Amino acid sequence: MAANSPFDCVLLDLDDTLYPGDTGLGPALRRNIDEFLQAKLGVSAERAAAMRVELFRTHGSSLAGLIALGYDVHPDEYHSYVHGMLPYDMIAADPQLARTLQSIPQRKVLFTNSDRAHMKRALERLGVDEAVFDDVVCFETMNPHLFGEAREEERAAGGDPPVVVLKPSVDAIVAGLRVAGTNPRRTLFLDDSERNIAAGKALGLRTALPKKLN
Ligand SMILES: [Mg+2]
Could you tell me the superkingdom of the organism this chain comes from (predicted)? Predict the structure, then answer.
């Protein structure tokens, strides 16, 4: 534990936090989501773009919105399309970031809404060893009910569509805190999203909106 530090743990977002928001990956991601929505729902490009914005606002992501609306979309199908084809070479290696992370003595938890495959590819491009983090909270760890037998059981039971857990929902922040394993007041949460930061703050986390970590 770091002596004289007000923090025992740092929760770190990945996208647009560990790497800059202007890599060009964001527009590529939005294009992929729009294409996915067009193909899945048979809507125009304009309608898909409007839906993406609305689903993000109301449900946290297009995937969460589609599932909430009752569409049968497997997360892997969505992620392999919208993330799988991203131009990852737009993320530059960042040796300084790798050194900065190594030098942080507190417990470090990567806390991302993204799926594990995307996380691994982004970290690989950055030159950051996943092992520098003590733990990871990602799409799959927040949503075990959407995979494997748990998913089949939920589908067989019928009823309402499953809820997708993503920041900034309370359940997601609680999942992050559980893995952090520390008092929220002694946990620093870094995320480029103002609404994620607001949600963390509401649950007692100390927060910062970094432009970029280093
Ligand atoms: Mg982010």
Answer: Eukaryota
Residue 18 clears pLDDT 70, i.e. is over it: yes
> How far apart are the CA of 40 and the centre of ligand 1, in A?
26
Strand pairing partners for 9? 107, 187
190: pLDDT confidence band, cut at 50, 70 and 90?
very high
Cα(152) to centroid of ligand 1, in Å?
31
CA dist 116 and 112 (Å) reads 9
Note the pTM of the prediction, 2 decimals. 0.93
The dotted CATH code for 25-86 is 1.10.150.450
pLDDT for the residue numbered 214: 45
Task: Report the distance separating Cα 112 and Cα 38, nearest Å.
Answer: 26
CATH superfamily, with its number, for domain 1-21+93-214: HAD superfamily/HAD-like (3.40.50.1000)
